[in-house]
Amino acid sequence: MNILENQILYQCEYCKKSFITKQGAKNHEEKYCYLSPIPKRKWLEKVKSCEHEWETKLSPMAGEEHLLEPDYDYCIHCSVTEMELRKLLNA
Question: Origin, by domain of life (predicted)?
Answer without folding.
Answer: Bacteria
